[in-house]
Structure formats: structure tokens, C-alpha cells
Amino acid sequence: MGDLVTMDDLSNDEITQILDEAERLIPVAEGRVTLPLLQGKVLANMFFENSTRTRMSFETAMKRLGGEVLNFSSIGTSVSKGETLYDTMQMIDGYADIAVIRHPRQGAAQYSADSVNIPILNAGDGSGNHPTQTMLDLFTIRQSQNKIENLRVVLVGDLRYGRTVHSLSHALTRFGASLILVSPPSLRMPSEIVSDLRNSGCEILETENFKDQLDSADVIYMTRIQKERFPDDDEYSKVAGIFKLSSNDLTDVKENLIVMHPLPRVDEIDSSVDKTRHSKYFQQAFNGVPTRMALLCRSLGIDVPKKVK
Amino acid sequence: MSEMRRVTAIRNGTVIDHIPAGYALQVIRMLRMDMNISTPVSLVMNVPSDKIGRKDVLKIEDRELNQEELDRLAIIAPAASIAIIRNHVVSGKLKVELSGELINIASCSFSNCITKADREPLPQRMKVVNQEPLEIRCYYCGKGQSLEELIENII
Ligand SMILES: [Zn+2]
């Protein structure tokens, strides 16, 4: 019931409500206000694949709300000895009130949610969904644009394997965005996702020409292109050089343009961008905390007070 | 009815008519009758049909298929008509129905799907997202499955 496996688990109204709650929780996320809403609750961080940032973000969110955290890693445990995901999740069902799962296989979060009684939050499964990342992305967009409706969003980089861009595209489409998908041919957004987005009325442009798209954009969402996706170094460096943003590219952009990145970055955003008013990726990383606080409360059925102080 | 007589009429059993031409063998696989046929099965392929152009027909002797078994055929033979024969007489007629979900009919084609993990106690589940044109996706990983893939991966 309180599961969050894909963005389909949330209605547009719920999304808006959670973003409102996250906003109210910012002082708590910053440690300025103490609000032990989740005191006595235990979160299990089930990471079957490493992701230090996501794990820590959840851990901070839980602890700032007075809750406890169990950290599970599959390395050197019963999982490496061949325990099934089902069995591991049965164990945690008895230990915790809620679990966050990150798993290399797609569909693992849905399967976990079906297997246990406690609520499951999907923190990334294969190249599938990553809804808590999407929520913090939406939060960041709304924070600087004052809305999430009808925006022109340019998604750049690895759109094929990048799960954050898959979830985010679906969500933005529900709020009337038009999307410009910029990627090398080998890393284009999967065709079934593109056709889904088009069917739900989204205007989509697929292109390899990055710089032409900047001036009309409200949001530029950069992603990392991984070396491993290419057959050799030459191929990689050719591509990596093209999809690179520097402050020189931002001279004629819209006033409200923001540059986002799920981090860690390699060199797709030059550090010259950091100092511009457009850069929002560090803010975005912090926003994971209040957003995940609001999501933990929602899944555990705890109301966030209308006034937090 | 004349094309039905290309094979000897059966005394007891099931006749599956209006299978799209070329799919009779897949139907046999889908009914899991390829491994352990214990009764005679006759097969007519590529006969003209007013309804679907060309069709295949299967006659299975001494076995009455039930609705659940027949529903397995919905993805490849949605227009199939089925007659249960008792003592040379049609005693019942059935149609296949495509439900919203296919459980343990075919496995997912995506190598990184959780259903490909060893020993996980999970059913193979497919969601029928759209009937016309047919669109089927894995319940777990969400990947679209083509008809060819589904047939290839029949359990
Ligand atoms: Zn699958």
C-alpha cells in the first residue's frame, strides 16, 4: 500500500502533495529544526548494488526524523552465498518497518514489494525505475521554476541505460512537458519509452545536436556517459567531447534556465558552470533529503504537520 | 464444414478451428502437448478460411481441453473456435479469452529481468497492456514482449 516502485504509484495530486511536504521539511533536513516524526521506526537500506549517495541520503532523511537505520550490503553476506532475494526480504520483513531497495536486476523492487508486508521504496532496479530520484528532480525543478507544468526540458547523455531519465521523462510528460532528447545514436532512449511518451501526448524531439537546443530550454538535465558503453576509447572520447556543457554555452540562454545532473559527474559539466546562477546540481543532491523524508512519511502513513518549526 | 473433414472426424475430444495459418505447432506447444502426447493429435495446415484467409485446424482425440488451457492460446489464436466432441457430436463450444494477465505462459525475454535470477520462487507474469494491436509487457521489468519472443519463450 505504501510502496513506491514506479512513478505510476503516485497520482499527480499526490506528487504535488509530497513536494509541498518536502518543502515544509527543509528546516528539518538542514538540522535547524528537530522533528522526530519517525521515532521508533526502523528503515532497512537494502543495497544489492553500491550507491553510497542514495544510501546516505535515505539514512540522513530517516535519522533527521528520529528513526533508526539498518544497512544491508550484499557483499560478504548470505546473498553472496546464494540466498534468494525472496529469502533475504523475508528476513528484513521481520526486522524493519520499511525498506529501501537498490538491485542490479530490473523488476527486483516490484518483486520485493509483492513478497513482504512492509512498504518498499525502489531506489533503482537495473535500468528500470528510480522514483525517489524523480521526486527530488521534480522538487528541484519546482523550487527554481515555481512550477512543474509545461516546461521545455532537454535531457542529455546516456538516455538508453540512464534510469533517472526514464522515470523523469514519464513524470514530466504527466505535467505537460515537451522533451528534447539529446544522445549519441547508440545511447538513444528505448523506443518503447519514446512511444509511451508520445502516446501520452508528449511532444518529443530526438537529436544529436546538443548546442542548438540550449537557448529555448527551461531545464537542461545532463547525465554521465559511461566509458563501458563503448567498444573502444576512441569512440568514447568522440562522443564524450560533444555532450559537454561549459559556461560559454550559457550566454544566450533563458533567464530561468537550470542545469541539473544526478551526480556523480565526470566531465560532462565543466566546473565553470558551477558558479553560474543556472547550476542546480548540488542543490539537487541536498534536495534528496527533504524529498525522501516526505516519501518515508507517506509510506509509513505519518502525516507531515502543516506548519513545521 | 467441408474443410473440417480433411481429417477423419473424431469420436471424442477437442477440435480447435481458426488457428492462424502456420501456428498449429505453436498451439501444441502452448498446450504443453509437445512433450507428453498420449492421445492422437491430427493437424491440418493452411486450409482456406472465409473468416481469417488461411487457417490451421487441430483435432485432439480423447481429451477435453478446459477454458483455462484454452485461454493460453489467446495471444496467438485469439479467433480460435473450439468444439468439444462427445460420441461424434458437438457437445460444447468454447472461445478463447485474453485476460489482463498471463501467468506462467511465457518467460520474459529480457536477460536482466529479476525473473532470470536463479531459484527465485516467482511466477512468470505478463501484463496485457493493449489488446488491439496486441501489446504485452513483463509485469516485473516492464519490457515489451513481441509475439515471436513470447512463442520462443513458452514455458
Ligand atoms: Zn521481465
Structure description:
The complex is a heterodimer of chains A (309) and B (155). With 309 residues, chain A is of the alpha/beta class. Chain A folds into two domains: 7-129 and 287-300, Aspartate/ornithine carbamoyltransferase (Rossmann fold), CATH 3.40.50; 131-284, Aspartate/ornithine carbamoyltransferase (Rossmann fold, 3-Layer(aba) Sandwich). Chain A is 37% helix and 15% strand. Chain A has helices at residues 12-24, 26-29, 52-64, 85-95, 108-115, 131-145, 163-174, 191-199, 233-242, 281-300, and strands spanning 42-47, 68-73, 98-103, 120-125, 152-156, 178-182, 203-207, 219-222, 258-260. Chain A has a five-stranded parallel β-sheet, covered by helices on one side. A four-stranded parallel β-sheet of chain A has the order 2-1-3-4, sandwiched between helices. In chain A, helix 3 (52-64) crosses helix 10 (281-300) and helix 6 (131-145) crosses helix 10. The two termini of chain A are 30 Å apart. Chain B is mainly beta and 155 residues long. Chain B folds into two domains: 3-95, Aspartate carbamoyltransferase regulatory subunit, N-terminal domain (Alpha-Beta Plaits); 101-152, Aspartate carbamoyltransferase regulatory subunit, C-terminal domain (SH3 type barrels, Roll). Chain B is built from three helices and nine strands; from the N terminus they run βαββαββββββα. In chain B, the strands form two sheets. A five-stranded antiparallel β-sheet of chain B has the order 2-3-1-4-5. A four-stranded antiparallel β-sheet of chain B has the order 6-7-8-9. Chain B is globular, with a radius of gyration of 17 Å. Chains A and B meet through helix 5 of A and loops of B. The structure holds zinc ion. Zinc ion binds at residues 108, 110, 113, 115, 138, 140-141, 143 of chain B. Residues 108, 110, 113, 115, 138, 140-141, 143 of chain B line the site of zinc ion.
